[in-house]
Design goal:
Belongs to the plant homeotic and developmental regulators ALOG protein family. Its main location: nucleus. It holds the Pfam family ALOG_dom. By secondary structure, the chain is mainly alpha-helical. Helix content is 32%, strand content 2%. The chain has a two-stranded antiparallel ribbon. The chain starts with 5 loop residues before the first helix and ends in a 51-residue tail after the last helix. The site of zinc ion has 5 residues, from loops. Zinc ion binds next to loops.
């Protein structure tokens, strides 16, 4: 029996390898940058802040006697807030009104419209920031004056009574209200009552459900 020795002598050549390919495969292009998320407008807050600031500067300009920003005090800021009330859209009942303390009066009344406390509070926050962004010193910021804080607190308490809306929920601890829409709708043209988030119902932490029906 002759063993076929030839079988070992001729090994098949290795298959042509593609390693020597002169053209490197094209690199995949880098992924395109994600679509730019910067919105065309700066942001609602920023543009609102700019509008508020311009409104205030205009107010100073028209002030009699003329008033400069450097001489502006907390009292002037309060004056400005009162001036804005004429553009308000939130019904605030007088003490003599039958609907004093009613959140949802069944009929119209002659009580004045004012700026809702939530709008004023947000406005002061924006103006306070704008003042410092425009070179004002924090220690002389009239929007941070104590008198302004006190005024806002009085407005809040007065409107809470007049409108029957507790801005401050009871002081007991309760989970944060999930969805309170920001009151800033646009300089105070928020629909009346929008600032208040009438979340009453007391269903928050009521602790019901503990005792099941027997
Ligand atoms: Zn009224």
């Amino acid at each position: 029996m002759s063993t076929s020795a030839a079988s070992t002598s001729s090994q098949p050549p290795p298959p042509p390898s593609a390693a020597e390919d002169p053209d490197p495969p094209p690199q995949p292009p880098p992924p395109p940058p994600p679509p730019s998320t910067s919105s065309p407008s700066p942001s609602r807050y920023e543009s609102q802040k700019r509008r508020d600031w311009n409104t205030f500067l205009q107010y100073l300009k028209n002030h009699k006697p003329p008033l400069t920003l450097a001489r502006c005090s907390g009292a002037h800021v309060i004056e400005f807030l009162k001036y804005l009330d004429q553009f308000g859209k939130t019904k605030v009942h007088n003490q003599g009104c039958n609907y004093f303390g009613h959140p949802n009066p069944p009929a119209p009344c002659a009580c004045p419209l004012k700026q809702a406390w939530g709008s004023l509070d947000a406005l002061i926050g924006r103006l306070r920031a704008a003042y410092e962004e425009n070179g004002g010193r924090p220690e002389s910021n009239p929007f941070g004056a104590r008198a302004v804080r006190i005024y806002l607190r009085e407005v809040r308490e007065g409107q809470a009574k007049a409108r029957g809306i507790p801005y401050e929920k009871k002081k007991r601890k309760r989970p944060p209200v999930p969805a309170a829409p920001p009151p800033a709708e646009g300089g105070g043209d928020g629909a009346s009552g929008s600032g208040a988030a009438v979340a009453g119902e007391g269903s928050g932490s009521g602790g019901g459900g503990g005792a099941g029906p027997s």
